[in-house]
Write a structure and sequence with these properties.
Length: 111
């Protein structure tokens, strides 16, 4: 994640010597660049790393604590149906082979 951030701000024309020299303008510029290609979940993960980096360099307030303050929305999940409750088509299609396997296991226990 550090290399992604470094590559991004370098590509944008910033020359930052090390992580202690990072300013909010660098972070906001990288965020705007990432908005072009990344979804909200990826942006949240990247901002979590930036916050972690800020804590490690004794600069925890380098960016706002809330993603909403940066205009990052909520995560978009691909489905609203739990596979744990309803199963997937692949699991249903392999269930017949699992029953024959379980019969063999039971038979091996009787021997």
């Amino acid at each position: 994640m550090a290399s992604l951030f470094a590559r991004t701000i370098y590509k944008l024309g910033f020359r930052v010597a090390d992580e202690r020299a990072v300013k909010p303008k660098h972070i906001l510029a990288a965020l705007e660049e990432w908005r072009k290609t990344a979804d909200d979940g990826a942006l949240k993960n990247r901002m979590a790393f930036i916050r972690w980096m800020g804590e490690k360099t004794n600069r925890p307030n380098i960016i706002p604590r809330k993603n909403a303050e940066l205009g990052i929305g909520k995560r978009a999940y691909k489905t609203n149906v739990s596979k744990a409750l309803h199963g997937s088509a692949a699991m249903r299609s392999t269930s017949s082979s699992n029953t024959s396997h379980s019969r063999l296991v039971k038979m091996s226990g009787r021997m």
